[in-house]
Design a protein that fits this description.
Blueprint lengths: L21 E3 L6 E2 L12 E3 L6 E2 L13 E3 L5 E2 L11 E4 L9 E4 L7 E2 L20 E4 L5 E2 L2 H4 L5 E4 L5 E2 L2 E2 L2
Parallel strand pairs: 1-3, 2-4, 4-6, 5-8, 6-9, 7-8, 7-10, 9-11, 10-12
Antiparallel strand pairs: 13-14
Length: 174
């Protein structure tokens, strides 16, 4: 047990905690610091505070066992490499069920507006190819910025959602 009631900065707090498998983020936490769970290779389950508004750079980098992650409604931004090395196959609209898939789930009424460049990639690409396993992506209505969408989701077979709202450099990309 770890008392986080006085914690204000979680930057690299659990970096390389090799035996960490489950964590509950309490409601006093509003931002996950840079690299807070980076290289926690056994981390499988994260119960998030509904008050988290930013998933910072490298938050879950190389957490390869992380599955079925529900993005809190309040999250407005996912930063670079936040989920790099996580084996999500889908980014799906959350309907209260996991349906046996390995996915990042987003609520329909999500506040998510920004996905930073390489949010689902590791630092170094493999010969210029994507390092994520995404085959299907749901983009919520409020999402307005996806940096370098053509490379961020280059492996995606199907993109669903309100794509006409997504732009890069104020130009329609679809």
């Amino acid at each position: 047990s770890f008392d986080t009631s006085q914690v204000t900065n979680m930057k690299y707090m659990f970096y390389r905690c090799s035996n960490l498998t489950t964590i509950n983020i309490p409601n006093n936490i509003t931002e996950l610091g840079v690299g807070v769970f980076e290289n926690c290779k056994k981390l499988e389950t994260v119960k998030m505070s509904e008050n988290v508004s930013i998933i910072s750079e490298k938050t879950f980098l190389n957490c390869s066992k992380l599955e079925n992650f529900i993005l809190p409604v309040a999250v407005k931004q996912i930063d670079k490499n936040a989920f790099g090395g996580v084996s999500f196959e889908k980014i799906m609209k959350y309907n209260g069920k996991f349906n046996g898939v390995n996915a990042l789930f987003i609520h329909e009424n999500s506040y998510l507006t920004t996905i930073k460049n390489d949010a689902f990639e590791v630092d170094k690409w493999n010969n210029g190819l994507t390092t994520n396993n995404l085959i299907e992506v749901y983009l919520p209505y409020k999402l307005s910025i996806v940096e370098n969408m053509e490379t961020e989701f280059m492996s995606v077979v199907e993109v669903m959602g309100n794509l006409y709202d997504v732009s890069r450099n104020n130009q329609d990309i679809l």
